[in-house]
Amino acid sequence: MTARVDHLVTSGTFSLDGGTWEVDNNVWIVGDDAEAVVIDAAHDADAIAAAVGGRRLVAIVSTHGHDDHIDAAPALAAATGAPVLLHPDDLMLWRQRHPGTEPDGELSDGQAVTVAGTALTVLHTPGHSPGAVCLHAPALGTVFSGDTLFSGGPGATGRSFSDFPTIITSIRERLLTLPPDTVVRTGHGDSTTIGAEAPHLEEWIARGH
Asked: Would the pTM of this model clear 0.85, i.e. be above it?
């Protein structure tokens, strides 16, 4: 039995550079009936814990350190005993939201997080933030893109710690090289596929976002 993907949408705020915005976030839960991994513990630890149910939570994987993707991570970790994992290049963002605490472990390029016999391979995809990562699950035909790639273009790069040329390089070299039928499960909004997005790369470069 291979892992399945469950989906939850939670609502809250995103704050950076002195501004705050209302946001809806995708929370992805990968696993089987016995164990699971949560990708991006956003806003509502109780709702995420309820969706996990009685399963053992193997890890809480953070695609990046923006507060709307990590705000519920410490509470979910406390409730489940699961470690929170984050790429160390985003520690400065974590510390803005959770001062005096650290994640439980680091994510690194090429690392595999395994759940229900299914490997989620970490792809370091900086640009939206320095420590942004995506998680590629070939066995499931999907990549969890966080805020690196959306339906219609790259993640935002207009705020601190972000860079447009860097995100374009990450998308070109790490994501658009995946099989075209790979489903892109994003941090916000609708899913897409690599094949649907790849033809538009030059348009995104031309418009600059």
From this structure: yes
